[in-house]
């Protein structure tokens, strides 16, 4: 999709569990198959059906820690006893070739990336490309109902997810854009519009970046 006038886009998308982030990201990838979906590294074992380099880059703890020591990650965290992280080179390498990058990441990871973007270490191509979007449900009550209807969790887990969502939604104003997902088709129209418009954004308009 890129031309000489367009800049590559690095879109980071966050949302509370159940807000529809995965569905919207998949819609974007289906319509724009040239977008590179960023695959995270993890130290957890691969589950049945998962493929290395497709679902995650699977590595042992020592290899992961070596990359942390060499400051190779844009963001990393330990979750439920396993380490997860996104390599700087996996994003930079695509952007420098003019390829768009999509990341689906939690608010903590997005905050780490935001700090990197604001640092002197961050290359201009990454600063220019960056845009972040927070997907939010219409209300906490609507999210609670979705989680119940999904039928994947018991009541205690749903309550924990809802409480976590309340905390995560406090961070929504840190993002460039907020997309309210009350209707998937409408929400996707908004996400697509952000993606397309960002291609034509000038660097000077990225004020906080």
Write the topology of this structure:
Elements: E1 10-14, H1 21-31, E2 36-37, E3 41-42, E4 57-58, H2 61-69, E5 73-79, E6 82-87, H3 88-95, E7 101-104, H4 107-117, H5 124-129, E8 130-136, H6 140-150, H7 155-169, E9 177-180, H8 184-199
Parallel strand pairs: 1-7, 1-8, 2-7, 3-4, 8-9
Antiparallel strand pairs: 3-6, 5-6
Helix pairs in contact: 1-8, 6-7
Structural write-up:
This protein is of the alpha/beta class. The protein has a domain at 10-38 and 99-205: Rossmann fold, CATH 3.40.50. It has helices at residues 21-31, 61-69, 88-95, 107-117, 124-129, 140-150, 155-169, 184-199; strands at 10-14, 36-37, 41-42, 57-58, 73-79, 82-87, 101-104, 130-136, 177-180. It has a five-stranded parallel sheet with strand order 2-7-1-8-9, with helices on both faces. Strands 4-3-6-5 form a four-stranded mixed sheet. β5 (73-79) and β6 (82-87) form a beta hairpin. α6 packs antiparallel against α7 (155-169). The longest helix has 16 residues, at 184-199. It is globular and about 45 Å long. The chain starts with 9 loop residues before the first strand and ends in a 10-residue tail after the last helix.
Q: Can you list the strand order of the major beta sheet?
A: 2-7-1-8-9
Q: Which CATH architecture of the domain at 10-38 and 99-205 is right?
A: 3-Layer(aba) Sandwich
CATH topology of the domain at 10-38 and 99-205: Rossmann fold
Distance between the termini: 24 Å
Q: What is the gyration radius calculated from CA atoms?
A: 17 Å
Please summarize the sheet with the most strands. Answer: 5 strands, parallel
């Amino acid at each position: 999709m890129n031309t000489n006038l367009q800049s590559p886009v690095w879109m980071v998308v966050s949302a509370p569990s159940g807000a529809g982030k995965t569905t919207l990201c998949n819609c974007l990838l289906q319509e724009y198959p040239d977008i590179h979906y960023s695959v995270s590294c993890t130290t957890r074992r691969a589950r049945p059906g998962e493929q290395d380099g497709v679902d995650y880059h699977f590595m042992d703890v020592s290899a992961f820690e070596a990359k942390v020591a060499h400051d190779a990650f844009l963001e990393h965290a330990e979750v439920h006893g396993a380490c997860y992280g996104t390599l700087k080179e996996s994003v930079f390498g695509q952007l420098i070739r003019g390829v768009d990058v999509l990341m689906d990441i939690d608010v903590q990871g997005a905050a780490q990336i935001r700090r990197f973007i604001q640092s002197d270490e961050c290359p201009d191509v990454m600063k220019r490309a960056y845009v972040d979007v927070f997907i939010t449900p219409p209300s906490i009550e609507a999210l609670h109902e979705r989680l119940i209807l999904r039928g994947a969790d018991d009541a205690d887990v749903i309550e924990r997810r809802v409480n976590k969502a309340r905390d995560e939604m406090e961070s929504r104003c840190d993002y460039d854009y907020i997309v309210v997902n009350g209707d998937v088709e409408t929400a996707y129209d908004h996400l697509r519009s952000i993606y397309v418009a960002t291609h034509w954004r000038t660097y000077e308009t990225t004020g906080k970046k």
